[in-house]
Design goal:
Shape of chain B: rod-shaped
Distance between the termini of chain A: 58 Å
Shape of chain A: globular
Radius of gyration of chain B: 25 Å
Number of helices of chain A: 8
CATH architecture of the largest domain in chain A: Orthogonal Bundle
Strand content of chain A: under 5%
Largest sheet of chain A: none
Strand content of chain B: under 5%
Number of helices of chain B: 3
Number of domains of chain A: 2
Structural class of chain A: mainly alpha
CATH superfamily of the largest domain in chain A: Winged helix-like DNA-binding domain superfamily/Winged helix DNA-binding domain
Radius of gyration of chain A: 19 Å
CATH class of the largest domain in chain A: Mainly Alpha
Oligomer: heterodimer
Order of helices and strands of chain A: HHHHHHHH
Order of helices and strands of chain B: HHH
Largest interface: A-B, 45 and 33 residues
Structural class of chain B: mainly alpha
């Protein structure tokens, strides 16, 4: 890795792995994700004069990538949502990208979520943003993000339970009873 | 028996079986699967080129940005 004399480049590099993981998880396709990341890098680089040093570069570049994602989806007339999972099987990631079967299942379940819920969950749950930052990135209210995240979680639990994910299995229903008996 | 119960419940109270906690763990595992690949060479060389182009432009402009 070349030395990071330029603070902008250094910050960009630091954010890149997480940004790429977001892109892959958001669009469920590694090639398309890398195209998005490349576009985001180019846009960010071109607009760096407008970026105020000391402000949140991570939120800024995530916003760029996210906007790019939706504008490309619109341009190409892609079906933005895949809630019934029709294309899910085709949009496979590179072989071996998610090593374990467990993660592949989880990734498939994630793809069944509506895009707005998926992105909110990813940004809060994996990219480490605060709700307020996610609201800025997605250009909506904090309450909207909170509700998207909680719907995403509920939906994921449903999907994974239906598909017999052991982690979500009988334990969950019994948890309430045992917890109640413990409390009383 | 009561001890076993307490143990399990402590687990739950700590979130070991909390579905939200499990989801968070999986999200992070998903991310780290991608992150572990590192930054692909094409992005490194792209940044390299952008940097070079900027430095050339910068030396012509003779520290205008300083």
């Amino acid at each position: 890795m070349s030395e990071a004399s330029d603070p902008f480049k250094r910050d960009l590099l630091a954010v890149l792995p997480n940004l790429r993981a977001f892109a892959v998880s958001l669009c469920g396709n590694a090639d398309r994700a890398d195209d998005l990341v490349q576009d985001a890098i180019l846009k960010a680089w071109g607009a760096q004069d407008r970026f105020e040093i000391g402000t949140n570069i991570k939120a800024w570049i995530f916003t760029i990538l996210r906007n790019e994602f939706y504008s490309q989806a619109r341009k190409k007339g892609r079906e933005v949502q895949d809630s019934d999972g029709v294309f899910t099987e085709k949009l496979a990631v590179h072989p071996g990208q998610y090593g374990s079967l467990d993660l592949q299942d989880f990734s498939k379940a994630l793809k069944q979520l509506p895009e707005d819920q998926r992105e909110a969950l990813l940004l809060v749950g994996a990219s480490g943003f605060a709700y307020e930052e996610v609201a800025q990135i997605c250009n909506c209210r904090v309450g909207t993000i909170k509700s998207r995240v909680s719907r995403a979680r509920a939906r994921l639990q449903e999907i994974l339970e239906i598909e017999g994910e052991s982690d979500f299995g009988p334990d969950r229903s019994s948890a309430a009873t045992t917890l109640r008996s413990f409390a009383s | 028996m009561p001890h076993e119960h307490i143990g399990k419940n402590v687990d739950r109270l700590n979130g070991h079986k909390d579905p939200n906690r499990i989801i968070s763990q999986k999200l992070k595992a998903l991310y780290s699967a991608v992150e572990q690949e590192g930054i692909p060479d094409k992005f490194m060389s792209l940044l390299e080129k952008l940097d070079e182009a900027e430095q050339k432009a910068g030396s012509k402009a003779d520290h205008v940005n300083e």
